[in-house]
Amino acid sequence: FGGGPFRAVVCSQVLHELPAAAKTAAVALARNVLPSGGCFYVQDRFRTEVTPGVPADDYHAIWDVITIDRPDTMPWPDYAKYIDDKLDDATTEPQCLALLKDHFDDVEVLYRVFNRSLIVARVH
């Protein structure tokens, strides 16, 4: 990466596509190009069944609100099954947090909605 180190690395909608070894390599690469004070931002989707602090009924209710007036949208139970089936290499959010904590000094979830989260991992 010629001009590194970088102050920030952004990874958006990628990790869920990678097998475990490639996930680990991507996170390690991000850490290697970040100096003290650098941040790695991960925005991704995770398996829905174990996102902490969000009961399944809340997902369903939020889904119903954001899809109102969109009759072509599949119902929440169908979407949840579709996305979990599609995400062969996806992890749960806690698994992703654990991977990031193995490489970074501080890891924080900045926001979470449905099965998507924005996470920042910092280097001290």
The 3D shape can be described as elongated
Beta content:
15-25%
Query: What value does the Rg take, in angstroms?
Result: 16 Å
The overall average pLDDT, rounded, is 86
Sheet with the most strands: spatial strand order: 1-2-4-3
Helical residue percent band: 25-40%
Task: Determine the N-to-C terminus distance.
Answer: 21 Å
Report on the biggest sheet. Answer: 4 strands, mixed
Number of helices: 4
Structural class: alpha+beta
Low-confidence stretches: none
Order of helices and strands: EHEHHHEE
What is the number of E strands? 4
Chain-wise SSE layout:
Blueprint: E1 8-12, H1 20-32, E2 39-45, H2 56-66, H3 76-86, H4 93-103, E3 106-113, E4 116-122
Parallel strand pairs: 1-2
Antiparallel strand pairs: 2-4, 3-4
Structure, briefly:
The chain has helices at 20-32, 56-66, 76-86, 93-103, and strands at 8-12, 39-45, 106-113, 116-122. It has a 4-stranded mixed beta sheet with strand order 1-2-4-3, covered by helices on one side.
Structural description of this entry:
By secondary structure, this protein is α+β, with helices and mostly antiparallel strands. The chain is built from 4 helices and 4 strands, in the order βαβαααββ. It has a 4-stranded mixed β-sheet, covered by helices on one side. It starts with 7 loop residues before the first strand and ends with a strand. The mean pLDDT is 86.
Annotation keywords:
124 residues, alpha+beta, four-stranded mixed beta sheet, 4 helices, 4 strands, elongated
